Amino acid sequence: MKVVLTPTYMNSFSCIGSECEDNCCSAGWQIAIDRKTYQKYKNIKHPEYKGKLKESVRRIKNKTASDSKYAYLKMDDNKYCPLLNENNMCSIHLNLGEEMLSPVCATYPRIQNRIDQEFELSATLSCPEAARLALLNPNGIDFERKEYEPDKNWNTKINLKTNNVDSGNIKFHEVREFAIDIVQNRILSLSDRLIFLGLFMNKLQELLDRKSYHEIDGLIQEYQIKLANEQFLNSIRQIQDNTSVQVETTLGLVKARRRSDISSVKYIQCLNDLMDGLNISEENHLDIDNVKAVYLSNYKKFYAPFIAEHEYILENYVVNYMFESMFPNMALGNAFKDYIKLSALFAMLKLHFIGIAGQYKGMDRDLAVKIVYTFVRAFEHNISYKNGMMELLEENGFSTLAHIVILLKDRKIEEIHVQ
Asked: Looking at residues 228-240, what average pLDDT do you find?
């Protein structure tokens, strides 16, 4: 038995199968098949599946092929997995057993990571049921360690060795624990907590650049003191927003995703609601002043009243992202880039909340869960988009803390004047 660190919501998670409102096997994703599973499928003798698998499984015959991505399942015309039965359940799993699933199918929506000798297990919030369990706890996400037997058929997404750097241990556990403490400290609004996190990450990056790993403990202590310093916190609260740049930048990032193929029907619905809620017509030139006015009106009338009682939903999204993505992966030396990526995703998600709240003249918890899980499917699962997003931000100068603050900072409610 091993030891696993896991969010406590995982104790309640199990796939709800045909009851799921947006089955993962009908999400339109390309389902990767590893070499080992491909060989199992090639040699299968079952009369019902021999022909079906031969027709549905396609080899990857270009240079992108690897042992873990050796083939893929060709979706049907409706972008459903061809191996689903009439109840939208996996017929391979039901009739041949879990051991016949590819690691991708066997693992999802679980995220299994490994740090040195310790495993971590969480879930991606692209699964509606996992999203409900993770997001809707008003007390926030807690973690626990317990005995664990890793499933041999599950993927390990990240394998991190914390002492595999020039000068010894990079204090990954201590840094991530403090980063999560910042995000869960509700003395500040969530956007301001992320700005505080940015100040810390900026200093951390300086230490990593100098390979001054021995100074990380002192940096954490310094910012723990600042987190309890009301004068310092007030200085963050008083930062001025730049809503025009924030809206224009986040909309640009969303539109960049819209230009590529989007397979999730539910996300396309959310995207259309976002555009309609901000009074944006695809045919018309973007009038940023008009969009800004609608954005601020939506923010004050519909988003702020909901988030005043339910900000924990967005907090839980951020904390889950930090845990399952091993934020910040300091072994790669790009901790601040990880912060930029997190901030951009959060800013875009907040834009979705504000636009869609305007379209429906309000927000509730079910709609919030739908926005999050469809957003994660469309943005977090698309690696090429995330890489392009970072390139776009850097090309437009959004690689400094000052610019990221613009993406995050909310205007004070009392400063918003609605007609």
From this structure: 97
Cβ atoms 314, 178 nearer than 8 A? no
Query: Whose CA is closest to 305, among 418, 406, 182, 142?
Result: 418
DSSP conformation letters of 201-267: HHHHHHHHHHT-GGGHHHHHHHHHHHHT-HHHHHHHHTPPP-HHHHHHHHHHHHHHHHTS----HHH
**pTM confidence score:** 0.93
pLDDT score for 419: 66
Among residues 39, 98, 99, the alpha carbon closest in space to that of 70 is found at 39
State the DSSP code for 74. P
Rounded CA gap, 137 and 317, in Å? 11
Signed CA dihedral, 176, 337, 201, 116: sign only: positive
Q: What one-character-per-residue DSSP string does 115-173 give? A: ETTEEEEEE-TTSHHHHHHHHS-TT---EEEEEE---TTS----EE-TT-STTS---HH
pLDDT score of 167:
46
Q: Cα torsion for 9, 11, 15, 19, to the nearest 10°? A: -70
Quick one: CA dihedral 282, 284, 289, 295, positive or negative? negative
Q: What is the pLDDT of residues 235-251, one digit of tens each?
A: 999 999 999 999 999 99
Average pLDDT rounded to a whole number, residues 181-201: 98
**157, 12 contact by CB (below 8 A):** no
* Core vs surface per residue 294-303: b (16+ CB within 10 A) or e: bbbbbbbebb
Please state the separation of Cα 291 from the chain's center in Å: 26
The whole-number average pLDDT for the span 406-412 is 95
96 within 8 A of 103, measured Cβ to Cβ? no
Residue in the structure block whose two tokens are 């698309």: 382
